[in-house]
UniProtKB/TrEMBL annotation:
<feature type="domain" description="D-isomer specific 2-hydroxyacid dehydrogenase NAD-binding">
    <location>
        <begin position="104"/>
        <end position="274"/>
    </location>
</feature>
<dbReference type="InterPro" id="IPR036291">
    <property type="entry name" value="NAD(P)-bd_dom_sf"/>
</dbReference>
<dbReference type="GO" id="GO:0016491">
    <property type="term" value="F:oxidoreductase activity"/>
</dbReference>
<protein>
    <submittedName>
        <fullName>Phosphoglycerate dehydrogenase</fullName>
    </submittedName>
</protein>
<dbReference type="Pfam" id="PF02826">
    <property type="entry name" value="2-Hacid_dh_C"/>
</dbReference>
<dbReference type="InterPro" id="IPR006140">
    <property type="entry name" value="D-isomer_DH_NAD-bd"/>
</dbReference>
<dbReference type="GO" id="GO:0051287">
    <property type="term" value="F:NAD binding"/>
</dbReference>
<keyword id="KW-0560">Oxidoreductase</keyword>
<keyword id="KW-0520">NAD</keyword>
């Protein structure tokens, strides 16, 4: 059985796969010509959506494609086929994303950046910090990653609400409401955490109307998709004091171009799409599990519904 590995770290993925399934015939590259040559022979594809989408554009198609990303936007471009099994990375990002969120909540409450600035200025800053206990968080996107983040934050005494495509009962969330309740619940939250995938329904939802509903003391974190935020409206909200701060991990255009307003916006921290990197060890474990399911004709973990887009 042949597996095409389209990854910058294809050598590492190949070594890990050989430890689990030594009988696989592996070919890896991050070069388009080499990937096209090998894919023409038919194979299972494992790798980055941005490297594999061009193969689909060429008319090539996998037996099954396992994405190494949670997001699969490049594979959903207009005109690309949808008649093959596609699975996205699930079950491997929960803790690392939760650590990212917790890091920035603590930094916000402990006023970490302000204290660094005070030290540079040799100014003694003894303002008292706040605790996470008793704060409220609105997690927008309560799937695999969002639920993991909620479970991670719950022991800190944070009141948790969620937004999903449809209302549901989902502990430890006190409430999970539909997307139509976003602005109402945002007005009650100290932390606003976007973890939504990119779908037509989730684009531009963080706009001027939304930010006008937020507490001036709220922290907005976007670790979902850049297209969910209207950039100019977020910058205006920060200038106008509608938010206490923002942490932006994902942007509409990456890398963020020089001169973009985010670079100089007040109280905005850019983290360069680093919130939840793929751990090859965990991804290979997911692939091996899905491979056994695929060979046995069983349901795959993380299988994408092309109509929903995730």
């Amino acid at each position: 059985m042949r597996v095409l590995i389209a990854e910058a770290e294809h050598g590492l993925y190949a070594d890990l796969l050989r430890q689990h399934v030594p009988e696989l015939e592996l070919f890896g590259s991050d070069q388009s010509a080499e990937l096209s040559e090998y894919a023409a022979g038919g194979a299972i594809w494992l790798g980055q959506p941005d490297l594999l989408a061009p193969l689909l554009q060429q008319g090539l198609q996998p037996q099954w494609l396992q994405s190494t990303w949670a997001g699969i936007t490049p594979l959903l471009a207009a005109g690309l086929p949808t008649n093959y099994p596609l699975t996205r990375a699930v079950g491997i990002f929960g803790q690392v994303m939760a650590e990212y969120v917790l890091c920035h909540l603590l930094a916000h409450e402990r006023q970490l950046l302000a204290r660094v600035a005070a030290q540079v200025e040799q100014c003694w800053d003894n303002r008292q910090p706040h605790s996470l206990n008793g704060r409220s968080a609105l997690i927008v996107g309560t799937g695999d990653i969002g639920l993991s983040v909620a479970q991670f934050l719950a022991p800190f005494g944070i009141e948790l609400c969620g937004i999903a495509s449809h209302p549901r009962h989902l502990p430890p969330f006190r409430q999970v409401a539909g997307l139509d309740e976003l602005s109402r619940l945002a007005g009650e939250a100290d932390y606003l955490i976007n973890l939504l995938p990119d779908t037509p329904a989730t684009r531009d939802i963080y706009n001027g109307t939304f930010f006008a509903c937020c507490k001036p003391s709220a922290l907005f974190i976007n670790a979902g998709r850049g297209v969910a935020v209207v950039d100019a409206d977020l910058v205006a909200a920060l200038h106008q004091g509608q938010l206490a701060g923002s942490v932006i991990d994902v942007c509409r255009e990456e890398p963020l171009p020089a001169g973009h307003p985010f670079w100089n916006a007040p109280r905005l921290l850019l983290t360069g799409h680093s919130s939840a990197p793929t751990d090859p060890r965990l991804l290979v474990q997911l692939f091996v599990d899905n491979l056994a399911r695929w060979q046995g004709g069983n349901a795959l973990r993380g299988q994408v519904d092309f109509v929903r887009g995730y």
